[in-house]
Design a protein that fits this description.
Its EC number is 1.1.99.39. It catalyses: (R)-lactate + 2 Fe(III)-[cytochrome c] = 2 Fe(II)-[cytochrome c] + pyruvate + 2 H(+); (R)-malate + A = oxaloacetate + AH2. It is an enzyme of class 1 (oxidoreductase). Keywords: FAD, Flavoprotein, Metal-binding, Mitochondrion, Oxidoreductase, Transit peptide, Zinc. The chain is α+β, with helices and mostly antiparallel strands. 33% of the residues lie in helices and 20% in strands. The protein has 17 helices and 16 strands. Strands 13-10-12-11-15-16-14 form a seven-stranded antiparallel β-sheet, sandwiched between helices. The chain has a five-stranded antiparallel β-sheet with strand order 5-6-9-7-8. It has a four-stranded mixed β-sheet with strand order 1-2-4-3, sandwiched between helices. Strand 5 and strand 6 form a beta hairpin. The longest helix is centred in the middle third of the chain and has 17 residues. It binds flavin-adenine dinucleotide, (2S)-2-hydroxypentanedioic acid and zinc ion.
Length: 489
Amino acid sequence: SETYPDIQRDKRFAQLTQEHVAFFRNLLGTDSAIIDGVTSDAADDIEPFNSDWMRKYRGHCKLVLKPGSTDEVSKILKYCNDNMLAVVPQGGNTGLVGGSVPVFDEIVVNMSRMNQIIEFDEVSGTLVAEAGCILEGADHFLASKGYIFPLDLGAKGSCHIGGNLATNAGGLRLLRYGSLHGTVLGIEVVLADGTVVDDLCKLRKNNTGYDLKQLFIGAEGTIGIITKVSIQCPQRSAAQNVAFFGLESFDKVQQAFREAKGQLSEILSAFELMDEGSQALVRQVTNNKRPLEDQYPFYCLIETSGSNADHDSEKLQAFLEDVMEKGVVADGTLAQDETQYRSLWAWREGITEALGHLGGVYKYDVSIPIKELYQLVEDTRARVDAAGLLGDTDEYPVRAVVGYGHMGDGNLHLNVSTRRFDERVEKVLEPFVYEWIAERQGSISAEHGLGLMKKKYIGYSRNPTMVGLMRNIKNTFDPKGILNPYKYL
Ligand code: FAD
Ligand code: S2G
Ligand code: ZN
């Protein structure tokens, strides 16, 4: 796991004492809301809260608090602010940049007990829920009402809606439903000093002053703890279908993307890119039968969501025949039923798990102008090979350099799969990848955020004026710096 030689624990932050624990125990009033490693040895119970999903970042917190209400969050933060106790807000702990676990002994405030749906308006589709609601649970609730959550990602079974807002998660449906900056109507958030900010607006339009909620979307818990969300949810499409294509070049992938937008237009709901390397790893881990007979350098998964199953599959069938005829697509298959729909999606959604299963992964979630999207993978693979690190042996630890992602958003997930985290590999990759991105005015973080991993690289995508303004905002909302310290800025 990662160690932090270049970071010192901020001496302004107090060490936890038994009095502090007594205050929180008294406030929360139930054992299920507190894991106390201060007055008792709870190391094993605390472990999952100290270690991130990739097992790459590890903190040493001794106290996990699980508030059950906004008032409890407010009293926790006021106490921490008054007593200089550092805090890490935590949702489902599926973040991939080390933002959701302590760096040292910060208190973890985990939102999992605040997981209720509060209200749903069946006419407007407006959902109000607590931040600790699990994304998949909220989507299932909406499905029962004929609606859909305008966000989907592979971590849906564990990630929280609050964490999704805090990281401004993009995911698999952004092409169709847009970003959380557009779908979120309001939030309730608690500031470092315990102030409860009620901006839980349920109106589609509210043009009365600065749109402050936007600051908290993507702030990664550094200026407040989101406690409630109000979000506009679209009708769930009656008909969903998915096609899986094999293509001979990245040029052809770009052509397929243009054809999909042109021919499928309003029913296109996802366009995901996968390279052969990423698919070979999924095959290696799952041993599932591949969707197509032959192997191709590239694959794309195209999803349609519309109101009329016959009309949509006719349109998709015609599109498939057309792009095959034109030689844009070398081979393709359409899902015939729900089972095939899910199994085709699994070849895209299962990549992250497969990579995690195989050992250490260096992840780069980046935005690049679409025409160069895959060039970064090729340049990185050549660089790792030239450094003599490609080989999947103990001596040459890099198993594969693969690329996949949300083609429609110009968002590539470059992943370097290794047997273990290895200094030599990191030195070859960083800052090379970030410099490559900066030269093309791309973004070093498309959707996963900055966290601990990318804090020191923000300058590759934001100029000093912007970073200065962000610091002013941080100092306005969290002047003592107790919220998620050491990260982000
Ligand atoms: P956590 O990991 O617990 O926290 C993430 C950050 O938000 C931390 O900085 C934390 O301090 C802060 N935070 C959490 N809750 C709150 C709150 N209530 N108030 C304030 N701050 C808070 N991400 C994408 O964008 N797109 C993807 O397609 C995608 N796919 C993924 C697939 C897999 C298999 C995995 C493991 C992760 C994936 N992710 C993806 C990354 C991750 O799931 C998202 O960043 C997600 O939004 C994190 O939600 P969480 O509840 O797990 O937050
Ligand atoms: C995805 C998940 C993280 C990764 O699958 O869309 O956001 O890089 C990613 O595997
Ligand atoms: Zn993604």
